[in-house]
């Protein structure tokens, strides 16, 4: 028996590798020759790459009680989305484009609530306002899921706003747009037609199967697999009709140390696939061809980031900016306790 290390730290939510088999069908669309494809470099016409990410945070779990004594679960939460703008040719420094933070009172029920304002004793620390957002169900983690969903939607909208249109021509040599968006995680429903590339840091789903997966261990730095196509949520049932189709391919960012599993340093990428077509648009192939050169530059180093190399350098910098935008968790929690204590005390005295 040979033991290898999963490189990601044990205190992260999941490891870097799980490889649950994908139950649906995956098709070769670029080539039936399953071999490594070298990077082609970054074309000069691509002048801007934006890295988009989001971050959710639960700030307090709540129990709501109405005048009739009915109780329901809720939570104060926050989320933030942001972007970093890069020149893929290194002619300018990276710059923070925008960081947008929002606070939410997520609750279960159909009663309309007013926004909750937490006014500080010190006027210089600002007012915290939680906008109400109702969700269905009464699960204990419902509020957390609602905040996560709102963040993903905001991230999708931000990526769509920043990305260029994505031509779907099969042969146009100039189809690749000037601006590409790298979005942390899979691409989302509603982003079709835009130049958004989703980068998936973990390998939790195996889209390749036993006959293809061996190539991942053989990829050299910057090399990629041929492009594949699958349907989101395909369960393998004969009459299944999925919501959306995706292109996907894998890229190696760096060689894995000998003591780590051989898929360490590999990342999966996604783009939207047009329906009812049996070809790969030229712009998607061009994006795949440049992805190796781009990601090997942006991959983080283990001595600086425990999730290296998949947690890209711009992503790590953006995470720090987003955490600052939400403010100190400890201070926010203290203000919530103070606010609720004052509200309850005033209610009792009244």
Automatic annotation (TrEMBL):
SUPFAM superfamilies recorded: Ribonuclease H-like
InterPro entries noted in UniProt: NurA_domain, RNaseH-like_sf
Origin: domain of life: Bacteria
Domain NurA: 47-324
Pfam families: NurA
Protein name (database record): Nuclease
């Amino acid at each position: 028996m040979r033991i290898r290390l999963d490189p990601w730290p044990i205190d992260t939510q999941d490891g870097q590798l799980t490889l649950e088999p994908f139950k649906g069908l995956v098709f070769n669309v670029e080539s039936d020759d399953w071999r490594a494809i070298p990077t082609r470099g970054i074309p000069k016409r691509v002048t801007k790459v934006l890295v988009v990410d989001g971050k959710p945070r639960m700030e307090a779990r709540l129990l709501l009680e109405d005048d009739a004594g009915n109780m329901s679960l809720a939570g104060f939460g926050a989320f933030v989305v942001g972007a970093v703008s890069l020149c893929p040719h290194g002619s300018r420094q990276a710059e923070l484009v925008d960081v947008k933070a929002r606070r939410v009172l997520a609750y279960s029920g159909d009663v309309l609530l007013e926004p909750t304002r937490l006014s500080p004793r010190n006027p210089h620390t600002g007012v915290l306002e939680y906008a109400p957002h109702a969700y269905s169900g009464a699960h204990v983690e419902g509020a957390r899921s609602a905040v996560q969903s709102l963040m993903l939607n905001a991230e999708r909208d931000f990526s769509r706003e920043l990305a260029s249109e994505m031509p779907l021509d099969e042969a146009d040599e100039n189809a690749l747009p000037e601006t590409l968006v790298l979005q942390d995680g899979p691409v989302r429903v509603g982003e079709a037609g835009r130049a958004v590339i989703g980068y998936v840091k973990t390998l939790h789903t195996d889209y390749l199967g036993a006959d293809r997966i061996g190539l991942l261990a053989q990829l050299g730095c910057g090399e990629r697999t041929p492009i594949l196509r699958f349907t989101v949520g395909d369960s393998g049932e004969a009459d299944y009709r999925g919501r959306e189709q995706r292109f996907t391919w894998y890229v190696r960012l760096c060689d894995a140390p000998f003591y780590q599993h051989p898929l360490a340093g590999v990342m999966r990428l996604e783009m939207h696939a047009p329906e009812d077509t049996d070809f790969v648009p030229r712009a998607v192939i061009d994006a795949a061809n440049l992805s190796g050169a781009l990601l090997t530059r942006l991959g983080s180093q283990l001595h600086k980031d425990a999730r290296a190399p998949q947690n890209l350098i711009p992503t790590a910098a953006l995470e720090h900016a987003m955490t600052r935008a939400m403010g100190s968790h400890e201070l926010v929690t203290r203000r919530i306790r103070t606010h609720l204590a004052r509200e309850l005390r005033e209610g009792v005295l009244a």
